[in-house]
Design a protein that fits this description.
Blueprint (H helix, E strand, L loop, with lengths): L1 E6 L6 H7 L11 E7 L5 H6 L4 E5 L5 H14 L5 E3 L11 H9 L5 E5 L9 H18 L11 E3 L1 H6 L9 H11 L4 E5 L6 H6 L6 H13 L1
Parallel strand pairs: 1-2, 1-4, 2-3, 5-7
Antiparallel strand pairs: 4-6, 5-6
Helix pairs in contact: 5-7, 5-9
Length: 224
């Protein structure tokens, strides 16, 4: 199993995130960690190297989608059976990984989305608004309904790793994943997670001002 971490200017948290990740998960023979340093101007790459994980560095900042493309390419090249995407800002709880990987291991799903909205979690209002807009746009464009289309905590099985082909470099990539689910007829499920919101992680996430550009980019891709 590969845990892929897209990271841009995350020197403050990347070490803590790497240390927090589980060394073992039931049903998984080996866990490898890949950090994609997406053109950071701080010491993200230097800090990550201290933990003896695989690091790939972009010369320039390509965006979340660009980092995820690199993660998927690496997972395909190395023939991983399971890929986890995990944010670098400390928002995700590593304890959720066991229950998210279970449907993949048991062959019940090809993709698992960690959803923040099916439990009574304390979530910032801005996140709720962004998510509802994104869910509606994702359904309108791709016909796939999700309670958390913008979740960064996802698990992909072998078929999904090999068939998903991402095109977007920006934040709109999160919705594009559902386009790929529809295009490749991949089955997915959602599993509740408990996010860890801090002032730091909130500052790193999507903003309401990002929404118009994300929608525009998705529509352009759909029509191209």
């Amino acid at each position: 199993m590969l845990i892929g971490i897209p990271a841009f200017n995350e020197e403050k948290m990347i070490g803590e995130v790497i240390k927090s990740l589980p060394k073992k998960i039931k049903g998984v023979s080996r866990i490898d960690i890949l950090v994609v340093d997406d053109g950071s101007s701080d010491k993200t790459g230097i800090v990550a190297k201290k933990y003896k994980v695989k690091i790939l560095q972009h010369i320039i900042n390509r965006g979340l989608g660009g980092a995820l493309k690199t993660i998927f390419a690496y997972a395909k090249m190395k023939s991983y059976d399971i890929l986890v995407t995990f944010d670098a800002d400390g928002q995700h709880n590593p304890k959720d990984l066991a229950k998210l990987t279970k449907p993949i291991i048991e062959g019940n799903s090809e993709i698992v989305i960690g959803t923040r909205w099916t439990n009574k979690n304390k979530v910032p209002l801005s996140r709720i608004i962004i998510n509802k807009i994104a869910n509606a746009v994702t359904y309108f464009l791709y016909g796939v309904m999700s309670t958390d289309s913008q979740s960064g905590l996802r698990v992909f099985g072998k078929k999904a790793i090999n068939t998903i082909s991402l095109q977007n470099d920006g934040m709109e990539v999160s919705s594009e994943i559902f386009k790929e689910i529809h295009r490749n007829k991949l089955n997915f499920c959602e599993v509740p997670i408990i996010p860890v919101y801090t002032d730091y992680s909130i500052s790193k996430g999507q903003r309401l001002s990002d929404a118009p550009n994300i929608v525009i980019q998705l529509v352009i891709r759909l029509l191209s």
